[in-house]
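Reading a protein record of the kind used here takes only a little practice. The record below shows the convention in full.

——
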Amino acid sequence: MKERDLLLKCVELAKEKKAFDILSMEIKGISVIADYFLLLSASNPTQARAICDYVDDEMSQLDRPPLRKEGYGDARWIILDFGGLLLHIFQPLEREYYNLERLWADAPVERF
């Protein structure tokens, strides 16, 4: 599965669990961290964990499990690392505070 296809599949899965304010940032050529960031918001920690679990389970069934998972415990900012894609699941206050959109302002953005 190419990185762009992985991104679109994660968007679809996140939407199924009612994620909102979904956007991707293409950071390849800007950073060696990944090709894409996928940022999305969840209303509360329970929803953030549900999105995380669902994406993790579904992508694992497609033989593309995340390499790492961070932040699941408090679920304020969960990161699923798929190698070329970093999926960020934020609570609204954390998303506003860390403002990755501003930090990576040079990256092309796509809203979903």
